[in-house]
Design brief:
The model is unreliable at 241-258, 341-345 and 754-765 (pLDDT under 50). The relative contact order is 0.09. With 765 residues, the protein is of the alpha/beta class. It is 36% helix and 17% strand. Among the domains are: 2-22 and 37-229, no CATH class; 272-347 and 359-365, no CATH class; 500-642 and 742-751, no CATH class; 645-726, no CATH class. A hairpin with a 6-residue loop joins strand 22 (645-648) and strand 23. The chain has 23 helices and 23 strands. Helix 13 (527-540) packs parallel to helix 22 (713-721) and helix 20 packs antiparallel against helix 21 (697-710).
Length: 765
């Protein structure tokens, strides 16, 4: 048995999304403010908390107008008005649907969820819904509060007419959403509903919106939460406070998330290792030592307190009928860890004298990263052992009473961790959760780990098929007046295994997965473009330089292979590639009217998708707008390849049209005066000679083409970057054109994704 799907609706930015869970580790990725934290918070509130933790701000903001319209109807209702049921509000009530996949042999676990007696295995589902606890009482109380406000307003108007100053603060409640802002935690509760697997649908392929099944008008909630005995949930949230004790109180979050490492170790020791709890033979020595220490301490205490107790006796207590006073200790094995220095970090030192005690520091003096790492590992171990209801004696272990599914949620594990440590943790976290002989003995017990992260290094260690990408949508898109999010299951991007899927898998394993967190992606063919583009951005495109842009070197003309992934991410993409002209797949210097075509698969794919030809003459004269594809309001892709350049030939003094074929010759032809005077070696010297001696455009193009076939492009790029006048170089026109387009798209994107905070403040009763 395992959790197959999670569907969240009407919760913050998640209007309607599906998160498919992998069998082991699922990683939630996406740019900042894309909804990852909202998803983790929804799971936490529905699965671990009570309705009282919900706030009005947990509802999707687009529903506030609907809520206020309901309030207005309530205020004007007469005696014939029918108070609605919770099912009448199903379009805006926050929900979490949990879909499990189980076999017929696991029927005893899911008996409360099976849809009918004909069920033979497969999906079962249950809905958590936040809804009014008592609708008639909510209706009556809201009307009473609004009537009170109307009376107060009448009195204020009366006093104002008499010269009194009206109050500046608004009267509560102004409307129904203002009422719920203060009362939702008291008036709403979480209820549970059985779902019908026959109505389970895939998300919409275009909008990626989840198609949550509607509840019948007569649907009644279950008497209890059937998942209580099915799923054990543990979480490590992002608010993990580590530091000095003075700051701990402020940093510590609910659920003990900010506990010091010593407190976590003490709790683990008390639960699983305490020799005073069901001791065995191996514990006898420790118990004798504790008893001896207690006896010695008691003797010392009796001696020390004797004078004070005699003074008390001199005041008349105790008399013959009163109990006497005795001071005694009570030493427990866990007491030895109840102090600041319970956890010490021992330092390597070569400066101490022989036999000197080692240098030790308390846990608060160690780096935050290692505190975080050790803390998370011990918490995972504690989660595992608590789920398995472990006792100290191995012979007492059994699967009786253990929930079949252990769901662990970890939010932003990368906090304070070095890159290598991030990678080590995510590679071993699932192993820690499953490292117990009981799980090998009972394979029906399953652990599923859900991690949200902003780290490309964490994403790099997870198979991209297990990534779930959160995408931000601007207001107005998909018919929603506010920014919302969608979720893409990257395991479905390429379908069944094929060569493209294998290439992308190998490529993503070889590259850091920055594109899953970026505002935009620039795909380039080689090392020269990858090295120089950041400098072009810094010198000429300051806005782009401040954006989170991933530059990916795809090692050749393979950008088209990433197209399905780019489409799934919906991220603005600029493809910078080479014209690669030739005849019958044989590379040639670029010439007009010679029957040449592009040998570049990316360009050919692009032109074919646009219904255009891929001959060189058409490509050279292709209009600006034809090089971009607008997929939706926020997502577009543009290709950029070499275009004609007017150059001045020193030898003839003539201005001619030059036709570059690659990035290198395009850079040289865009800066002829700069490169013509260069000496050096390799391509730098060859290019300078060709610029000085060429008499025609064809002669120049042929010479540059010949030298580039065998030249060291990386060396050339390094020489260019090291030039003191690099900042004055002109960016090749096709790249400048592409970057200008990209900047316009990101400027628009930044405006459309701007979130305007709600005017109503959260009030905690």
């Amino acid at each position: 048995m395992q959790i197959q799907h999670l569907e969240i609706a009407n919760f913050r930015k998640l209007l309607s999304v599906r998160i498919d869970l992998a069998a082991e580790t699922t990683l939630l990725v996406g740019a900042n403010n894309s909804g990852k934290s909202s998803a983790m918070l929804a799971l936490r509130k529905f699965l671990l908390s009570k309705a009282s933790v919900f706030r009005l701000q947990d509802l999707t903001l687009s529903h506030l107008a609907t809520i206020d319209a309901i309030g207005e109807a309530w205020e004007t209702a007469d005696d014939s008005f029918r108070v609605p049921a919770a099912n009448d509000w199903t379009d805006w009530l926050p929900t979490l649907d949990v879909w499990l996949k189980a076999s017929q042999g696991e029927l005893h676990h899911i008996r409360d969820l099976i849809p009918n007696f004909a069920w033979k295995g497969g999906h079962v589902g249950m809905r958590f819904r936040l809804e009014p606890d008592d609708m008639p009482t909510l209706f009556t109380d809201y009307r009473k509060e609004r009537a009170r406000v109307k009376l107060l307003r009448q009195e204020i108007q009366k006093q104002t007419a008499q010269g009194a100053e009206p109050p500046s603060l608004p009267l509560w409640p102004q409307n129904l959403h203002d009422y719920l802002n203060r009362r939702i935690g008291k008036t709403f509760k979480i209820r549970w509903y059985r779902l019908d697997p026959s109505q389970l649908q895939d998300p919409d392929p275009e909008t990626r919106k989840a198609n949550q099944q509607p509840l019948a008008a007569t649907a009644t909630p279950l008497e209890r939460n059937p998942l209580t005995d099915l799923i054990r949930v543990h979480e490590i949230n992002a608010q993990r406070g580590f530091g000095d004790s003075a700051d701990e109180g402020m940093l510590e979050g609910g659920h003990g998330s900010g506990k010091k490492l010593s407190e976590q170790l003490r709790a683990y020791y008390s639960r699983h290792l305490d020799p005073g709890d069901s001791p065995d033979v191996s514990d006898l020595e420790a118990l004798r030592a504790i008893e001896a220490a207690q006896t010695a301490f008691d003797t010392r205490l009796s001696t020390s307190f004797a004078p004070a107790l005699r003074e008390v006796a001199g005041l008349g207590y105790p008399n013959n009928s009163d109990p006497s006073i005795r001071v005694a200790t009570r030493l427990a094995p866990t007491d030895g860890m109840n102090h600041e220095a319970a956890v010490l970090f021992e330092l390597d030192s070569v400066g101490g004298a022989p036999g000197a005690p080692p240098l030790r520091l308390p846990e608060t003096s160690n780096g935050l990263g290692y505190q975080n790492l050790i803390s998370m590992i011990f918490r995972l171990m504690a989660f595992r052992d608590e789920w398995l209801k472990k006792y100290r004696s191995p012979e007492e272990q059994s699967a009786t009473g253990v929930e079949p599914i252990h769901l662990v949620l970890i939010e932003e594990p990368e906090a304070h961790l070095h890159v290598q440590v991030q990678q080590a943790f995510i590679k071993h976290a699932y192993h820690v959760l499953c490292s117990d002989p009981l799980l090998a003995k009972y394979p029906n017990l399953r652990t599923q780990l859900v991690v949200s992260s902003h780290s490309s290094h964490v994403a790099h260690e997870i198979d991209y098929e297990n990534l779930r990408y959160f995408r931000r949508l601007p207001s107005g898109m998909a018919g929603v007046p506010i920014p919302v999010s969608t979720v893409s299951n990257l395991s479905t991007v390429f379908g069944k295994p094929n060569q493209t899927k294998e290439f992308v898998t190998r490529y993503l394993r070889a590259q850091h997965a920055d594109l899953f967190f970026a505002d935009a992606v620039i795909l380039v063919e080689g090392a020269a473009e990858r090295m120089m583009l950041p400098h072009f951005l810094r010198q000429h495109f300051r806005f782009l330089d401040q954006c989170y842009i991933t530059i990916l070197d795809i090692g050749g003309s393979h950008a088209h292979r990433l197209r399905p992934l780019i489409d799934a991410l919906g991220i603005v993409t600029l493809v910078i590639t080479d014209l690669d002209a030739g005849i019958l797949q044989v590379g040639k210097p670029v010439e007009r009217k010679k029957g040449q075509s592009t040998n570049n698969p990316t360009v050919r794919h692009w032109m074919r998708a646009a219904g255009l030809g891929h001959d060189v003459d058409s490509l050279l004269d292709l209009p600006f707008d034809s090089k971009a594809q607008q997929i939706d309001d926020l997502f577009s892709i543009r290709i950029a390849y070499q275009t004609p350049i007017t150059v001045h030939l020193p030898k003839t003094g003539m201005d001619v049209e030059a036709l570059p074929n690659t990035f290198e010759d395009s850079l040289v032809l865009s800066n002829t005066e700069h490169f013509a005077g260069k000496a050096g070696r390799g391509l730098m010297r060859s290019f300078a000679k060709a610029l000085r001696e060429a008499e025609t455009s064809l002669e120049l193009g042929t010479e540059l083409f010949s030298k580039l076939r065998d030249g060291d492009k990386a060396e050339f790029a390094l020489h260019v970057l090291g030039d003191s006048n690099f900042a004055q170089l002109i960016v090749p026109a096709y790249i400048h054109e592409g970057l200008t387009w990209l900047q316009s798209k990101l400027e628009r994107k930044s405006r459309e994704l701007l979130v305007i905070p709600s005017a109503s403040a959260e009030v905690t009763p």
